[in-house]
What we know:
By secondary structure, the chain is α/β, with parallel strands linked by helices. The chain contains eight helices and six strands. It has a single domain (30-180), classed as Rossmann fold (3-Layer(aba) Sandwich), CATH 3.40.50.300. It binds adenosine-5'-triphosphate and magnesium ion. Adenosine-5'-triphosphate (ATP) binds at residues 39-45, 162, 164, 180, 182, 185, 187-188, 193, 198-199.
Amino acid sequence: xxxxxxxxxxxxxxxxxxxxxxxxxxxxxxxxxxxxxxxxxxxxxxxxxxxxxxxxxxxxxxxxxxxxxxxxxxxxxxxxxxxxxxxxxxxxxxxxxxxxxxxxxxxxxxxxxxxxxxxxxxxxxxxxxxxxxxxxxxxxxxxxxxxxxxxxxxxxxxxxxxxxxxxxxxxxxxxxxxxxxxxxxxxxxxxxxxxxxxx
Length: 199
Ligand code: ATP
Ligand code: MG
């Protein structure tokens, strides 16, 4: 074996030891709270990717779409016929289009009731609360109420929260936080959101 091969073998051996150590330490098994936040693209697509993954094993999945429920959504169209998937959408247009605080709050609270039902149902393996961070930011939904439902959810249930500027309290509770970093976005160079890519 030459020098390079020996060095590679040694560094692979070290890597294996480190990974084995981490695997040995990860002993707990329970549902997780994941937060996909930040200004970059990928939060909602990552959530739907996980939805697809869970459905692939035959688990029951529920998705609540706050804000963009009335929008076109390719991944929802593709998956909706799966009997294990339930999607609830907020019955209003985009919030800065309607600009009616009272009706938006009501629409938010209506769909939040669906979320509470999901978060109390042990048969649901994964719950996605897409764009819920804005509901807290606009004050349509009380963070204490959301925390309460998350804390009391079934032990085996995983929840994904998406949206920019996630509330501090939600971040404190999260097991996994991924901050999508906006290194560059086509939109800022005059490129339109693209069907099948952006929605
Ligand atoms: P996606 O749905 O593509 O995963 P996202 O959930 O991370 O995106 P949102 O803030 O929910 O991002 O925005 C939804 C729409 O805005 C998508 O069409 C997305 O491509 C676009 N978008 C995401 N990040 C940016 C950005 N930094 N600048 C401009 N547009 C963005
Ligand atoms: Mg999104």
